[in-house]
Amino acid sequence: MRNDWLTILCAGILVFITAFCSSLMKEEYADISPQSMDQMVRSLSGQRLRSYAQELSSEKYAGRLSGTQEYKQAAEWVASFFEKWEMTPAGENGTYLQPFPNSHTIVFEGGELAYHYDPADLNKKKYYQYEQEYYPGSESGSGAITAEVVYVGYGIYAPELDYNDYEQVDVKGKIVFMEPGVPVSPKQDPEEYKKWSHYSLNLYKVKMAAAQGAKALLYHDLTVDPNTDYVKGFLVSQVGDVVANDIFSETGYTLPKVRETIQQELTPQSFETGKIFTMENLTEHHAKGTGYNVMGLIPGADPEMKDEVIIGAHLDHVGFCYEVMPGANDNASGMAVLLGVAKTLSQNPFKLGRSVLFVGFGGKEQGFLGSQAYLKDPVFPVTKTALFINLDIVGSGHILKVFGAQDFPDIWKAVRKTNRKEIGIQLIPVEFSSLERENSDADFFYKKKVPTLFFQVQDVPEYIHTTQDTADKLNPKLMQDLTHLLSFVILDFSQK
User: Which runs of E-coded beta strand occur in 315-398?
Assistant: First the structure.
């Protein structure tokens, strides 16, 4: 009998001690002084945040094309801060890096794009200016071709939609010129757009043009974009309106009118232009590259909270084509804010209730490879993610859109309350698009039913994916204010 009473007494004492310690632990992370937290965040100056972005957009990382050694060096630079701040490695084999397959193509200087304006004398050429009028394609094959240009509308063959841009023209051995996107507007008819959205992908357009026998593609979108497929020997160049106007000149057609007809009637308007162009691109394809997510974890202190918060930003950019594309706003700015929040929360004297995972995604510009790799092999089960915050192009202007704010009103209410009380950024709530095509890393988490907020500047600058996306154009005050806001939001959310 005595032993029974002794056992009961010891069990009671153990329960009391456990509850008492648990309450102390909760007080340790719950009793947080807003003033001390505010001082910590404000001590991380906007200039320091911009210096992070300036480092990542420097030439040493060669535009951070995921899969390259330069990109890996950028990931290791970010990881060095996670280690310095004593964050827990969340990558493979006790490191901060999560690898995934990532092919890529390097573009070299030395090619050309030229129009033979006199068919009787092909030595007479009009050469187009790099960046102002054309870019070599980021996933172009290597080589040269001189051939006729054929206009093929949007470059779509969709039997189920009774639509074929290639039906009335012969493109074998020729250069095709096409428009980006599809002839249906997602804003005017979202349901109809869903039927067409697959055909808007660059990788589809390249593969279809090659399958039809074309040897090269002039894509009417003057930007650097590696989100496509490499087809050996198939050349691609991105062109602007100057090139488009030369292709249409003296053909009896105007591009705006032809485009309008396609959109209104959903009938192809393809034709052979009779224009002769020379394309030459010098590239080197690497089929077996490796990309990396860089991941650092702040473990939660509350054993009852079995889910986590993730804050992510894509670390990669578009590399060099054939000059370095710095990618300061896209997306060194997002990584700078992520580092700012990581420093603030990992160095504060108060423990977090929920675990918070920081992820710099690779491969976003090549088809969201990093975010998809993470969702296939997450640190915690995806169903246990309480909140995902995505940062992409957050370094310019004064206004930020918040995608997901209307989808998750309770979370948005808390963000808006904290913002009004502590910071005062102008935030515009936006709902996630219901369209089938993903446009950001956030879309993949949202489609997994993870509560998601995605921050991006209201007006994305025209210099994105060009050599002009440099750190001097960033707004340090906006980056500091966003770091401030997210630190408070995540700290508050990690306790609920």
Answer: 355-361, 385-391
| 344 and 41 Cβ atoms separated by less than 8 Å | yes
What CATH number has the domain bearing residue 225? 3.50.30.30
Beta strands in 315-420 (DSSP E): 355-361, 385-391, 399-403
Tens-place pLDDT, residues 260-296: 999 999 999 999 999 999 999 999 999 999 999 999 9
Domain count, the chain: 2
* 355-361 and 426-430 strand pairing: unpaired
Residue 312 lies in a domain: yes
Q: Hey, what's the torsion of the CAs at 162, 168, 173, 175, to 10 degrees? A: -80
The reply to whether 366 and 321 lie within a common domain is: yes
Domain termination residue (choose one: 258, 285, 312): 285
Contact in structure between 51 and 472 (CB atoms under 8 Å): no
Please check whether residues 81 and 156 belong to one and the same domain: no
Domain span holding position 208: 105-285
The terminus-to-terminus CA distance of the chain in angstroms comes to 45
> pLDDT tens digit string along 167-212?
999 999 999 999 999 999 888 888 899 899 899 998 899 999 999 9
Q: What is the pLDDT of residues 34-64, one digit of tens each?
A: 556 666 666 788 899 999 999 999 999 999 9
In a domain, 20, yes or no: no
CA nearest 247: which of 139, 147, 354, 390? 147
Q: Could you say which of 285, 314, 336 is where a domain stops? A: 285
User: Can you tell me the distance from the alpha carbon of 369 to that of 293, in angstroms, rounded to the nearest whole number?
Assistant: 10
Place of tokens 């009779």: 274
Residue 2 lies in a domain: no
Q: By three-state DSSP, how is residue 332 classified?
A: helix
**How deeply is 342 buried, as exposed, middle or buried, from its count of CB atoms within 10 A (0-12, 13-18, 19+)?**
buried
- pTM of this prediction exceeds 0.70: yes
Structure tokens at 451: 């509560």
User: What is the DSSP annotation of 147-169?
Assistant: EEEEE-TT--EEGGGTEETTTT-
pLDDT tens readout for residues 214-258:
999 999 999 999 998 899 999 999 999 999 999 999 999 999 999
Q: Would you state the structure tokens that stand for residue 355, as one six-digit string?
A: 């675990």
Would residue 11 count as lying in a domain?
A: no
Sheet holding 104-116, edge to edge: 126-127, 104-116, 271-286, 143-151, 175-178, 216-219, 235-239, 134-136
pLDDT at residue 488 is higher than 50: yes
